[in-house]
Design brief:
The chain is α/β, with parallel strands linked by helices. The protein is built from 10 helices and 11 strands. Strands 4, 5, 6, 10 and 11 form a 5-stranded parallel beta sheet that branches. A two-stranded antiparallel sheet has the order 1-8. It has a two-stranded antiparallel sheet with strand order 2-3.
């Protein structure tokens, strides 16, 4: 009797183990890719900068000083076309390491960038609009996107866009060791080169989190960190509010040299993009070639 019970328990354990293996290897959970984007940006997106924490307690190696300390990129929006203000000291720090968040503010020129953590079915429409309007953009991709979306990435390249580095796993870069940081960034670039025969130049730190150490390391590796002078909470696919909302949000925050961060998972953005481009041009802005941003970041003439 005892042997039968033991045998039955072992059979049950084996069955449950097999079921677990089958479940996790054969079934893809809905929105699995989106989980990592539950917190996409940690800096301020509001009209104020109350969420910016320059003295963040989070550090990369246990030492909370100006070199290691984690910073979350945030801006104070300007009004009526006025220029936004970054948190104190941030523009100087970015400039020190050939990084950029805004273009030439003496020119009515703006730049489009899109973050691509995972594909939500809207990138083709975005590319259609950009092709029709003759505008190029930077598409920042992650490891899962690179693994799954060859056709869309090839189209980005063929149609004159830049494909940027958003790291393999979308981890906060300041919380990684030097070696882990390099694996996250260079590892993605290496796979991109193997597939498409080109290297990435532009880097967007996941969540907008950075430190002087991460800027220095990535700059030495040859990357230009590209932050932004406008963003809003468009990555939340459960909080889409219609294309008119997206249009008005971007429209009311246009400014000279703007680097716009939009998320391609947003249905609102995809539907509003054509209107945004038309309005900006009618308002006297032109869309700059995003490849200019490398020269601007490195202090070269455009």
């Amino acid at each position: 009797m005892k042997n039968r019970k033991t045998y039955a328990i072992l059979l049950l354990i084996a069955f449950l183990g097999g079921l677990a293996i089958f479940f996790f290897t054969s079934i893809e959970l809905p929105n699995m890719s989106a989980w990592v984007y539950a917190v996409e940006l940690t800096g301020s997106l509001s009209e104020g900068n109350e969420n910016i924490n320059i003295d963040s307690p989070y550090v990369a190696s246990g030492i909370n000083d100006s070199y290691e300390g984690l910073r979350s990129w945030g801006i104070l929006r300007g009004k009526n076309g006025g220029l936004p203000k970054a948190d104190p000291g941030a523009p100087e720090l970015l400039a020190k390491y050939n990084s950029i968040y805004i273009g030439d503010t003496s020119k009515r020129k703006i730049y489009l960038t899109f973050d691509e953590g995972y594909e939500n079915g809207y990138t083709s429409k975005i590319l259609d609009v950009l092709y029709e309007k003759k505008v190029n953009a930077i598409f920042f991709i992650t490891g899962p996107y690179l693994d799954k979306e060859d056709e869309l990435i090839q189209r980005m390249i063929d149609e004159g866009h830049a494909v940027g580095n958003h790291s393999i796993n979308h981890k906060s870069l300041p919380l990684l060791s030097d070696k882990e940081l390099e694996e996250e960034i260079v590892g993605l670039d290496r796979k991109f080169h193997q597939k498409f025969g080109a290297n990435m130049v532009f880097l967007r730190p996941p969540k907008g989190e950075y430190s002087e150490r991460t800027l220095e390391i990535t700059s030495k590796l040859g990357y230009v960190n590209v932050f932004w002078s406008f963003a809003y909470d468009d990555w939340n696919v459960n909080r889409q509010r219609g294309w008119e909302y997206a249009f008005e949000k971007v429209k009311s925050n246009l400014h000279n040299g703007a680097i716009l961060l939009l998320h391609a998972v947003s249905k609102d953005n995809a539907e509003a993009l054509s209107y945004i481009i038309d309005y900006a041009r009618e308002a006297g802005y032109e869309f700059g070639d995003v490849f200019e941003l490398e020269k601007l970041a490195r202090g070269e003439k455009v």
